[in-house]
Amino acid sequence: MPTADLELTITRAADGTTTAALRVELPTRRAEWPPEPISLDATALCALTSHSDAYGAALTAMIFTPALREGWQRVRGFAEGGHAVRVRLVLMGDDGLHALRWELLRDPVSNAPLAASEHTPFSRFMVTTSLAEVQAPAKPTLHAVIAVANPELPPSYRLSPVDVAAEVERAQRGLGDLAATILDGREGRPLASLATIAAALREETSILYLVCHGTLAKDEPYLFLEMDGSGAYQPTAGAALVQQITALTRRPLLVVLASCQGAGNTYEMLAALGPQLARVGIGAVIAMQGNVPMELVAQLTPRLFTELRRDGQIDRALAAARAALHQHPDWWMPTLWMAVRDGALWRAEVPVAAPTPNITIGTVQQITINGGSVGSIIGTNSGNPPAPAGAQSEAITHQHTLLATHRRTLGHYLQQLAVFGTAYAPPHIMHGATEARTGIARAKAALRTLGVMVEDLPDDTL
């Protein structure tokens, strides 16, 4: 099913002014609405934190100026045909923007929450300077690391002990039959320390599911992990975990930072760590932006991973899991940061027809009999019949569409690059051009595998 990609960019300048811009990519065309000044009143929103519906309505009114609302109405016309609209929120210039509850943003026309529908899968898209691959080349055999830390903390933190057995059981139930390495210090298993987590992730792990307490110190996240050998309290900078993951030759596709019962304000630490992990090339990071009730996690996780295994689309999977919680007042708390534009943690396999054996065909000689001509087959000549229709034809059409889309996207970024110049271009422009060229190379390779000749254009590569 064709999907429209809608990118909503919120930019806060150094002087505090804030703008919103909209860009839409349909399968065959693209439209843009340039940045518009908006009044993003964090104080007014803060006063509404205990009223989710009012918060969402106020945030939506602040973002969608008349011009952007018109743009959204045009996109809705496409969506009403049954097509999905992938909504990517890009926050630029100030990480403080991540503190707002963007998952409560609503359709400015229908007033329906965007993040709670598979028709509008919603994510916070992270621009990254990392060139590491953030997608698996094909559906992998998923393997998870479940790390649950429960060190003895100083009384001054006033945090309840982590119920390790319950947290592990909850994670296993959510992951279903996925193979998992457990780090919890029980039954002879290793403790959840930075070293053991890093070692487990080197085993080509697809998913890291981490449960621990933590805090923010000078706006920097710290995790309360365990000390190797003793289980003592080991404050660990979030930057240290990010560094360990950055050093991996193959990084996890997904990191889930799960709050635990009695976590106090640990969720603030996890929410601060989420963008950092996505920026270094993790395909997707999920964290909670509130002290989420455990029954919500217990309902959300199984549905999330069941949906993810269907097609690898993490934004759609989370939207489906949220939709199942629509009666729960805290459905919006799971937050998704993505480094993959299309939401796919692994690339869809392109169906390739089996090689067609050569068929021996005779050469034709014309013979005249009573004034007429007939064909006579003599001799042999090897050749291939025309390529079969069906799945292969659909795959070729699909790859041609992807190639055209990536080339249009590249042209958009190259135009912006010409305006700014290479030395002064914002990082998202350079990253977007690189990602578009990667998509072009992938589509051309798929087409050539299918036996289709593809022209190399000058801008396809640097």
What is the domain total for the residues?
3
State mean pLDDT (0 to 100 scale): 81
* Top CATH class of the largest domain: Alpha Beta
Widest sheet: strand ordering = 3-2-1-4-5-14-13-12-8-6-7
> Are there runs of 5+ residues with pLDDT below 50, and where?
351-388
What does the overall shape look like?
globular
Strand content bin: 15-25%
What is the helix/strand order?
A: EEEHHHEEEHEHEEEEHEHEHHEEEHH
Number of strands: 16
**Cα separation of the termini:** 32 Å
Radius of gyration: 26 Å
User: What proportion of the residues is helical, as a percent range?
Assistant: 25-40%
CATH architecture of the largest domain: 3-Layer(aba) Sandwich
If you consult CATH, what is the topology of the largest domain? Rossmann fold
Number of helices: 11
Pfam families: CHAT (PF12770)
Protein name: CHAT domain-containing protein
Domain CHAT: 54-332
InterPro entries: CHAT_dom
Can you characterise this structure?
This protein has 462 residues and is α/β, with parallel strands linked by helices. The chain has 3 domains: 3-120, no CATH class; 143-338, Rossmann fold; 391-460, no CATH class. The protein contains 11 helices and 16 strands. Helix 10 packs antiparallel against helix 11 (427-449). The longest helix is centred in the C-terminal third of the chain and has 30 residues, at 391-420. The protein is globular and about 60 Å long.
